[in-house]
Structures are given as C-alpha cells and as structure tokens.
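My current task is to audit a protein record that another person submitted. Alongside the sequence sits a line of tokens, each denoting a local backbone shape. Please read both lines and tell me whether the tokens look consistent with the sequence. Do not assume that whoever made the record got everything right. Thanks in advance; the entry in question is below.
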Amino acid sequence: MQTKLVSLEATYLAKVATDAALSVIKKKQFLQSKSRQHKD
C-alpha cells in the first residue's frame, strides 16, 4: 500500500512539473513573438 501512494505522488509531481514547464515555454514563446512584432 505504501508503494502505491509513493507512485501516485510521483505521478502527480511529474504532472505538475510538466504543466509548469509547458506554461514557461508558452510564456517564452509569447514574449518572443511580442518582441518580434515590435522589431517589425
């Protein structure tokens, strides 16, 4: 039972980390596209 909880926690943490990474990537892309528009 203990190992099941640990794997659930690991899966949740992995999902949170993935979501955080995706939001950072999206923010970077958004800022890059904004700066490109200003250059034009």
